[in-house]
Amino acid sequence: MALFGYCTYVEGDVVARWYRSRDARSHAISKEAFWYWASGQAYGPEALRGLNPQEFRPIDGLCEPFSPNFGK
Fold first, then answer.
1. Which residues contact 62 (CB under 8 A, 6 or more apart)?
2. Residue 10 pairs with which residues in a beta bridge?
3. How many of the other CB atoms lie within 10 Å of CB of 63?
4. CB-neighbour burial class of residue 19 (10 A; exposed 0-12, middle 13-18, buried 19+)
5. For the purposes of burial, counting CB atoms within 10 Å of the CB of 27, is it exposed (0-12), middle (13-18) or buried (19 or more)?
């Protein structure tokens, strides 16, 4: 069975996460990016500033699932 993963590096700490589907992994990436942007931990879309970082929700044009196209 295929696994889909990604890693984050924050202040010297590396965390790897694995998922059973590409969609689940893409959702997790979007949710983590939303948290960093909404909490002001990283630069992101101005429209996300001030939102509750714990309340992830898709926002048209801003928080759509990350879905890379690797030559498909």
1. 45, 47, 48
2. 13
3. 21
4. middle
5. middle
Lowest-confidence pick of 2-11, 45-54, 58-67: 58-67
3-state helix, strand, coil in the chain (%, to 5): 30, 20, 55
Q: Give the global pTM.
A: 0.70
Residue 4 is predicted with a pLDDT of 92
Amino acid at 20: R
9 band by pLDDT with thresholds 50, 70 and 90: very high
At 44, list the tokens: 């992101």
